[in-house]
Amino acid sequence: MSNMSWIDALAELKQRGEPCVLVTIVEEQGSTPRNAGAKMVVERERLHDTIGGGHLEFKAMQIAREMLESRSQAARLERFALGASLGQCCGGATVLLFEPLGQPQARIALFGAGHVGRALAPLLAGLPCRLRWIDSREEEFPDPLPAAVERVVNDEVLEEVERMPAGSYFIVMTHDHQLDLQLAEAILKRNDFAYFGLIGSKSKRARFEHRLHERGLAAETVQRMRCPMGLPEVKGKLPLEIAISIAGEVIATYNARSNEESQGGERIAKLLPASRRSPA
């Protein structure tokens, strides 16, 4: 157990984009180790704060971690009698509320802080995602950054491809066509992404396809690359118009994948602001 309070732990986990379960005593009957309103935060490796310790807390931790493992998003209530079955002698009973928080989130790597990148980053930052914005040129980033965006300045931009987890979204729009090609090769060689979009025209795609085939990448793998990227229905050449088109395609891709996963069982959140989501 850490020494951090539950509220500080929630703030830190939100900043890091890590999932957790908030456990709250919502009802107490008779003698209980802590009163209603006591909370603790459970993440995969640590506990923060306490609901009283003992077997009750251990059982609550098990339930919370099962919820994390299954990526459950539904809150649940559980009633516990604090007697022999829990190895506790309080003699009362308590009701716990388990609230899963912070998952799932799309993980997005945006390569390039040029005009379109600067228009796109605030749009993506307003969505429930974790955005890493990557460029070798520190002076190209705006000050201040959009909230909840992680700025990454690295002269070796290619290193950042391997730092993203499987299932990530990659958006490539750097100032250098050769770097774009190197990034495309690295991303396609991984071939474990949810989305890979490369800014450019149909002629740029044709040139890149030829070079990527020369480097040994299979045609079916290269076909996963979106170039030109963005929704074709959203026309325009202004940076903001291009950015809106790309953001729309990312949202559409995420929601399509969410629907596919929901067919096999549990629904997961869509990449839309809460105000725009349809009731479940």
TrEMBL record:
Q: According to its UniProt record, what is one Pfam family this protein matches? A: XdhC_C
Q: Which parts of the sequence belong to the XdhC- CoxI domain?
A: 15-79
Superkingdom field: Bacteria
Q: Which InterPro entries match?
A: MoCofactor_Util/Proc, NAD(P)-bd_dom_sf, Xanthine_DH_XdhC, XdhC_CoxI, XdhC_Rossmann_dom
Please list every transmembrane segment annotated in the UniProt record, as residue ranges: none
Q: Where is the XdhC Rossmann domain?
A: 109-250
Q: Supply the Gene3D superfamilies for this chain.
A: NAD(P)-binding Rossmann-like Domain
Task: Quote the PANTHER family the UniProt record gives.
Answer: ALDEHYDE OXIDOREDUCTASE MOLYBDENUM COFACTOR ASSEMBLY PROTEIN, XANTHINE DEHYDROGENASE SUBUNIT A-RELATED
> Would you tell me the protein name for this molecule?
Xanthine dehydrogenase accessory factor
